[in-house]
Amino acid sequence: MSVLLKTRVTAIGPEVADLAEGGVVILFADGSPPELAEVSVLHSAETGPSDDAPTKGASIAIGDVSAEITAVGPAAWNKVREIGHVVINFNGAAEAERPGEICAAVVDAQALVGALKTGAVIVVAAA
């Protein structure tokens, strides 16, 4: 397993839990504009992001919640590398609807909400 990104949650915006209940998590690196921070999980990378983007079959783990990546939008990993931003949609879609989106297998919404806390580690690993 090759780690493509390991990052630590530094802050949780006030609207994050509502989005996570719907299976959506928005990551943004520390220093994001305040209006984006409200809906974002702010983070600070510890390893990566790698030059290589994850592919279908890679994994994403947020704390104890993990899922297989099912689709990666064409611009998603570039945004991660440039500004630490990506939308993760735990909808199991075979194709990303938006270019900046990573889709992953459906997870338990309450477990996802519970995993999103300051200090949690997020890891994206190659298949």
Automatic annotation (TrEMBL):
SUPFAM superfamilies, sorted: PTSIIA/GutA-like
In the record, Phosphohistidine modifications are located at: 43
> From what superkingdom does this record's organism come?
Bacteria
Q: Name one Pfam family in it.
A: PTSIIA_gutA
> What is the protein name for this chain?
PTS glucitol/sorbitol transporter subunit IIA
- What is the species of this protein? Mesorhizobium marinum
